[in-house]
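Before relying on records like the one below, remember that each one covers exactly one chain. Contacts with other chains, cofactors or solvent are not represented anywhere in the record.
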Amino acid sequence: MWAAGWGCAQYQNARFPRSEPQESHLEPNAAPLKATEEKLHARHKLVVEGVGHLLCAIGALAVGTLLLLKGVASIPNAVLDKIDAVNLATFGMPLMLLLFGVTITLMIGLVGRMYRDESREWWARQGAWTAIFMLAWSGLFLCTFYMPPLLAWTFAEYQALSSVGALAIVLLAWLGLRSGSSNATGRPGSSSKLELAAKIAPYAFMLIIVAILTTWLQTMAAPAPRLTPGTHPLSAFYAAYFKASMLSHGLLIPLLIYCAITAAVLGWRVDINKFSLYMMYRMRLVRAYFGASSNPRAPHPFTGFDAADDIPLHSLLHQRPDGSIQPQRPYHIINTALNLVNGEELAWQMRKAASFSMTPAFCGFEMPALPGSHGDKVPSKMLRGCYRPTSDYASRPALFKDDDALVKLGLAVAVSGAAASPSMGYHSSPPLSFLMTLFNLRLGRWSPNPLKEHKWKQSAPRIGFFSLVAELFGLTDSSANFLYLSDGGHFENLGLYELVRRRCRLIVVVDASADHKFTFDDLGNAIRKCFTDMHVPIRLNASHIETMSGPTPVGAAFVTGEINYAKADGVCENGVLLYIKPTMTGSENADLLNYRKTHADFPHQSTADQWFDEDQFESYRALGYQIGMAALKEAALKSASRLPGSPSHRIGYLAHLLLKQGEAEAPANVLPLHGEEPPKPPVPPKPSAPGVKTGEAGKRRA
C-alpha cells in the first residue's frame, strides 16, 4: 500500500514538474547537455529516495505493529470478553486511524531532509482529513448506538424532568428560528440574547432530530425489549440495546433499500420549487398586487386566483413597427441574490452572495473578475457569469408540460422578496440552513445557471434531491447546474449596485429599511460594494438626515451625492445619487405628527408588520409624498421639457440641478474622496456700506 501511494505521488510530480528559473548565461550548445545531466541526476535521486523511503516506512511500520500488539496485550481478558461488535465498530476504527497517524508521523521524522516541503504539506492535509473522518465516524456511531438506550433510560428514570428539558429545547429552537430569519439579528447593535439564541438553537434542534431519527431506526430495525423503570441501571439498557442491534443484520439492509427507493422517487416526482413556501408566497403576491390591475379578471370561484394575473417578464418589451424593441418605462430591474455559501472565492467569504438580476430583456449575473497570479484578470466564465435572453431563460417545460416555465413577473418579484431562506447571503449560517430546510421554510428558488449551455433553458432541476441536500448543508455556489436565488437584500438591499453597473445618470434611492438608529447599514454596504467591485466611488454626506427629537424642526429627509464614474471609466460622465430616507424632521403636517406621537417607531416600523391599517398606510403615503415633493419639485419644474415629442424631463439637466442643490446644502468639512478636491467653504458676504440693509434682517429693519 505504501509503495503504491509513493509511486502514485512520484508519477503526479513527474506530470506536473516544478518550474525552475532558466539560466540565460548558458551557451546554446550547453543547454542540451545540461538537460541530459539533470535527467540522470533526477533518476539517481529517485532511486535513492525510493530506497530511503522504503527503509523508513518499514521501520515505522515495525514500530506501529509493536505498539498495536503491546496495546492489545495490555487489555485484560475480562475487558476483551465484554467488547462486542458495537463497541468494536464504534471505537475500533478511530483507534486504528490514530495508530496510523502515529506511524506516519514517525516515518516522516525518519525520512527527514529527503522529504520535500510539498510532501510534508500533503501528509499534513491527509492527517487533517483523517481526523475529520475519525470525528465523523465517532459521532455517527455514538448517536446511532448509544443515544437510543441513553434516552430510554433517561425517560424511564426521570420522566418529568426529561419532558421539561425536551420542551425547553423545542422552544429554544423555535425562538432561534424566528430570530435567525428576521432583521433583528445579524446587524450591529442587535440584541445579544437574540444573537445567542440564533446561534445555539440550530444545534439544539439538530440534537433533537438526530435523537428522533436514531430512536426510530432502532425501533424499526432492532427493537429492544422494554425494561422496567427504576430496576435496571444504565448499563443494562446498553446491554439490551446492543444485543438487539447485533441481531438485526437481516432487517437493516431491506430498510436501507426502502429508504433509498423512497428518496429517489420523491426526489424525482416532488418539484423542489413548487413544494415550498416560495410558491405559496408568489401566488399571493400575484393575487394581491397584479390582480388589482388586471382587467378584465376571471378568478377561480373557490380560490380567487387567476392565471392571467401573472404575465411573462419579457412581455414588458414592446416591439415597434420596424421590428426593433422598445422597453417599457419604467424599465424593471429586479434584483435577487445568488448565494455562494460554499463558494471558492476567498475574497467573498463574508458576503457569501453575488447580484443576480432579472429584466425584461436579460437574466443573469456578472461577478467581478479576480486577479490572476501575474496581476491580470482571470478570464474564467465561472468568475464573470453571463446573461441570457429572458424570453428563453428557464423556458423549457418539464416532461408533463410544467406551467412554471418562463420567467414571469410574479416569479421575479417573489424571489426578490424571499427574505426567509436557508441560504441568505451574508446572513447565512450552516446550522440555521439545516434547520430552515428541515422545516421547509424556503422562500428562495432554484433557477438554471446561465453559464451552463445545456441547462439554462430548464425551468427547474429534474431531480430535486441533490439541490435539497445542497440547501440543507449550505453547499450553494455559482458552478452548479442550478443556482439558489433569494432576496436581493441578502447581497445589497437598496438596488443601487445594478444601477451603478449600468452607469445611470440619475439614481433615486429610497431607503425604507427599519433603521430607527440611523446607522445607514444598507447605504454603507452599497457604497462599499460599488467601489470594491466596480471601482466607482460615491461621495455622499448623510449627516444632514436626522430625526426630530423635540418641537424644533431639524435635519432633512434627503441628500444628494455624486457618483464618480470617471474614476472607473476615465471619460464617462459622472452621475447623481438622490438618497431619500423616511424621516420625521418636525415640519410635517398635523396628521403625520399625530401618528408619530401615537406610534413612536414611525416611520421605521419593523418589516415583520405586514398588516397595515388605513391610518398606517395613509401616514406612510403622505410622508413619502411630502419628501418626494420637497426633493424633486423645484428641480423637476426647471428641467421640464416643453418641446413636442421630446421626453417630459431632461434627465441630465435634472441631475445637474439636484447636484447643485446638494452642494449648496453640504457643509464645508466633507473629506475628499480618492484624490478629489474638497469643496470650498462658502465665501462670507462682504460688509455692506453704511446705511445699506441686506438680507432678511435688513428687510425687517427697513
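Residues 423 and 429 are 8 Å apart (CA to CA).
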